[in-house]
Structure formats: structure tokens, C-alpha cells
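note to self — DONT lose this again. spent like an hour looking for the file last time. sequence + predicted structure for the chain T wanted, 109 res
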Amino acid sequence: MAEKQEAQAAGPRIKWDDSKMSSAYANVCNVSSTREEVVLLFGVNQAWNRGQPEVTIQLTDRIIISPFAAKRLSTVLAGVVKEYESRFGQLDVESGALAQSAQQGNGKT
């Protein structure tokens, strides 16, 4: 009886159904939002040569989530990155031409 009460207090058991899941690769992500939703755009930068005057990003996927889901995602991603850096070393996303071109694309010059 106590086990059943503990299980109910913990909430329902989650079953992950991946039968309709697809996978995609992205090396670029952009985010925009309104009061009701957060939109994540994923794509691929195929400009392998540095110094090009223009870079085209092929957008492949758009994910629309609620601000509440976005906050939960932010928390989970922060934990994943922290764990990654503790195992493999600090990630420096501000260095290099790729970071500069990404900042310019987002209006952060």
C-alpha cells in the first residue's frame, strides 16, 4: 500500500514512444519568440570555406514550443553542457570565424 502511495505522489510513469520519431542533423539554430510560443529553427551551414561574403543556411526543421517548455529545455540543456564540459573541457563558442558569422546573422555585431 505504501509503495502505491509513493508512486502516486511521484506522478505518472512516462513511456517514451519513438515509433514516429525522425532524426535530422543541424549545425545552426536560431530562436525567436512571442508571448505564446518559442520557435526554434534548425539548419545546416554548408559554407566550408571561410571568408565568403555571404553564407546561406539551409533551414530543415522548425520546432514550436510553449515558453514553459522552453524554460525546461533551457534547464536540461544547461545541465547537459555542464556535464559535457566537466568530461571533455570548456567549450569556447565565442572564438573563431564561425561564431563571428553567427553573431552577424543574429544582428549581434
